[in-house]
């Protein structure tokens, strides 16, 4: 994987400043080749968010403020990119309409009831889950907080490889869905497992395997309801992956 593809992927998936000259020669249509860099992008986001969380909690903020800082940092670093997809997906899937109407609802920029509830519960569950593991030693806690974005982004390969783009025409999701090879998907998934295992040991390994299993099930569910995946469903899968990973840490 070329370094400029990593920078292009980071520029797309985060709000971390990336100089334009670092990505000038990247063809937008080939961004799917950057999927193996997802674990790296996740690690960078995790280090920044986890570092801020520990700074807040250990300078008088306490574990709950540290947990809130972590969750808000994830939102700020990504511009709510994946949360937007989660909200749109929930508005569509829970509308109990036809496939075509669900896709129309997901494309609507207005936030519906189910989307609003999804945002509230996603932020709340993440915050409570992080607070629940904040009693751990600082170094181990930081490792776990770094691993959550790695797991969520690595799992996206399951929503891309061998999948069909559910919409007609072009879209951001169309650059990834059904466009990555088995080799690229395998590299992404294995790299995610290796990174989490290295950083967080068996606890992290158990959590990421449960994350992958859950996302695999959600991919099948979305495919049955919508006939494929969209950019919004990928965002939803990433958020769900982080949530499942963090919750799993409370039990594994």
How are the SSEs ordered, and which strands pair?
Elements: H1 3-13, H2 38-78, H3 81-93, H4 99-107, H5 113-133, H6 138-154, H7 182-226, H8 231-248
Helix pairs in contact: 1-2, 2-5, 2-6, 3-4, 3-5, 3-8, 5-8, 6-7, 6-8, 7-8
Describe the 3D structure.
The chain has one domain. The two termini are 33 Å apart. Helix content is 69%, strand content 0%. With 252 residues, it is mostly helical. It is built from eight helices and no strands.
| SSE string | HHHHHHHH
The structural domain count equals 1
Q: Could you list the spans in which at least 5 consecutive residues all have pLDDT below 50?
A: none
Tally of separate helices: 8
| Share of β-strand residues | under 5%
Helical content class: 55-70%
Quantity of strands, as a count: 0
The general outline is globular
Largest sheet, in brief, is: none
**What's the pLDDT, averaged over the residues?**
93
**Straight-line distance between termini:** 33 Å
Q: Nearest-angstrom radius of gyration?
A: 17 Å
State the secondary-structure class.
mainly alpha
User: What kind of oligomer do you see?
Assistant: single chain
């Amino acid at each position: 994987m070329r370094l400029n593809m990593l920078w292009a992927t980071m520029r797309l998936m985060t709000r971390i400043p990336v100089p334009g000259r670092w990505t000038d020669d990247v063809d937008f249509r080939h961004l799917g080749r950057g999927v193996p860099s997802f674990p790296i992008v996740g690690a960078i986001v995790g280090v920044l968010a986890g570092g801020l969380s520990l700074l807040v909690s250990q300078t008088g903020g306490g574990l709950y403020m540290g947990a809130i800082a972590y969750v808000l940092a994830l939102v700020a670093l990504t511009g709510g990119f994946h949360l937007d997809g989660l909200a749109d997906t929930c508005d569509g899937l829970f509308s109990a309409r036809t496939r075509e109407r669900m896709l129309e609802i997901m494309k609507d920029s207005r936030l519906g009831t189910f989307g609003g509830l999804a945002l509230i519960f996603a932020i709340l569950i993440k915050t409570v889950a992080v607070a629940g593991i904040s009693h751990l030693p600082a170094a181990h806690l930081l490792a776990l907080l770094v691993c959550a974005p790695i797991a969520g982004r690595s799992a996206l390969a399951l929503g891309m490889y061998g999948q069909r783009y559910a919409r007609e025409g072009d879209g951001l999701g169309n650059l990834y869905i059904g466009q990555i090879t088995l080799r690229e998907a395998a590299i992404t998934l294995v790299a995610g497992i290796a990174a989490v295992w290295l950083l967080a040991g068996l606890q992290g390994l158990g959590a990421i395997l449960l994350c992958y299993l859950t996302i695999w099930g959600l991919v099948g569910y979305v495919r049955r309801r919508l006939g494929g995946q969209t950019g919004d469903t990928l965002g939803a899968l990433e958020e769900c992956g982080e949530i499942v990973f963090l919750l799993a840490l409370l039990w594994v």
